[in-house]
Write a structure and sequence with these properties.
61 residues, mainly beta, two-stranded antiparallel ribbon, 1 helix, 46% strand
Length: 61
């Protein structure tokens, strides 16, 4: 679900690194919103990241 329908941005994975340099897994989630978008003149609900919303790649309904 946490994937942008426009740019395909999704979660990133990496490591938490403590002061003693022990590592554990972590995840960075993308800022994805469920919004109504105009697609070919019709309103449709999509999951879109906020960077696509701000840049004007999609038009809100």
């Amino acid at each position: 679900m946490a994937r942008c329908a426009i740019c395909d941005k999704a979660a990133h994975f990496g490591n938490n690194v403590s002061h003693s340099h022990r590592r554990s897994n972590r995840m960075w989630k993308s800022n994805i919103k469920h919004v109504r978008v105009n697609v070919n003149g019709a309103a449709k609900k999509m999951y879109v990241c906020t960077s696509c919303l701000r840049s004007g790649k999609v038009e809100r309904a």
